């Protein structure tokens, strides 16, 4: 028996697991110190009241023989119609505000237990011979999932010079393109014109874009929240979304992916392929989670979850003001829960991470963990409690 030897090409542990281990070791050595976590993008605010009410009702339904639910209906690939319709209305609002005449059909929506799962599941649709194009720095799950499959990976540089928003050139290669906007880790957000450049590139080469829109709810103004706002995207893009940051579902687990019916390669519908894949390897998100997700997209739920995001957006402003006061260069934070800063002169990403951990008791994410392009940078998240965010900034001020 042989194992999948591609796993041996991975780093020993996933980035955030390593960070947690280092923080735990520091806490063990300094039990008197309270560490503040601004590293992993995990939410801290409780679920919205409307969401909680819907989930409690769902539990009560499961406790009654008359209203009990087992497997979700496979007619819509394990998404309940109440959630699919709510997601469709959500897209209608996005498209209407952008002046775009588009519509997402229920048969194009695949409900799952989160964006991270779908980002890996979608790879089953594509030959391992395809070359993968990743921005650098990049969310490590994209890289690791393709290493596991043994695909060739090439990078396009995301840097200060291009605002951490790389665009394709005549030399750019890759059949499977990952884009994330608002970006994790840099917080950068593509403009409509920039996304059109990528869509045109993908269509011209028969490539497919996997567009991670997990943070779309943080976008303000005229920046696009969905790649399907871009003309031609339905012929070359798949969009992956999540309720984790939109509605605080990191512990609930629910997300969705949109695979347009127009998207075909080698004469085959990718929508049909993904439906076949999901009915074989997946049994759907729980009824309770889907009821909560639908409630989050209701008018009242949207107002309540917006208040939660406003809390995190205020945290981002606190962090940005503190970094500015200290003279740090940074980007992100305005349309994103992430702030991407440059390490002070003389520090590497890892040495700066250790400095903040050991000297200030603040846990960050070293930029080098996101790839070579992240060396010399660090990432902060705005998902902590406001009191902790304020204290973390004060600790940085005292240290520098």
Topology:
Layout: H1 15-29, E1 36-37, H2 49-62, H3 81-98, E2 109-112, H4 115-121, E3 132-136, H5 140-149, E4 153-157, E5 176-180, H6 192-205, E6 208-212, E7 237-242, E8 255-258, E9 264-265, E10 268-269, H7 270-281, H8 287-296, H9 299-326, E11 330-332, E12 338-342, H10 349-360, E13 362-363, E14 365-366, E15 377-381, H11 386-399
Parallel strand pairs: 1-13, 3-4, 3-5, 5-6, 6-7
Antiparallel strand pairs: 2-8, 7-8, 9-10, 11-12, 12-15, 14-15
Helix pairs in contact: 2-8, 3-8, 9-11
Q: Could you list some keywords that capture this structure?
A:
four-stranded antiparallel β-sheet; alpha/beta; single chain; 400 residues; 15 strands; seven-stranded mixed β-sheet; Aspartate Aminotransferase, domain 2; Aspartate Aminotransferase, domain 1
Brief overview, please?
The chain has 400 residues and is α/β, with parallel strands linked by helices. It contains eleven helices and 15 strands. Helix 2 packs antiparallel against helix 8, helix 3 (81-98) packs parallel to helix 8 (287-296) and helix 9 (299-326) runs parallel beside helix 11.
What does this structure look like?
Strands 2-8-7-6-5-3-4 form a seven-stranded mixed beta sheet, sandwiched between helices. Strands 11-12-15-14 form a four-stranded antiparallel beta sheet. Strands 1-13 form a two-stranded parallel ribbon. Helix content is 38%, strand content 14%. It is globular. It folds into two domains: 5-46 and 301-399, Aspartate Aminotransferase, domain 1 (Alpha-Beta Complex); 49-299, Aspartate Aminotransferase, domain 2 (3-Layer(aba) Sandwich). It has helices spanning 15-29, 49-62, 81-98, 115-121, 140-149, 192-205, 270-281, 287-296, 299-326, 349-360, 386-399, and strands at residues 36-37, 109-112, 132-136, 153-157, 176-180, 208-212, 237-242, 255-258, 264-265, 268-269, 330-332, 338-342, 362-363, 365-366, 377-381. Helix 2 (49-62) packs antiparallel against helix 8, helix 3 runs parallel beside helix 8 (287-296) and helix 9 runs parallel beside helix 11 (386-399). The chain is an alpha/beta fold.
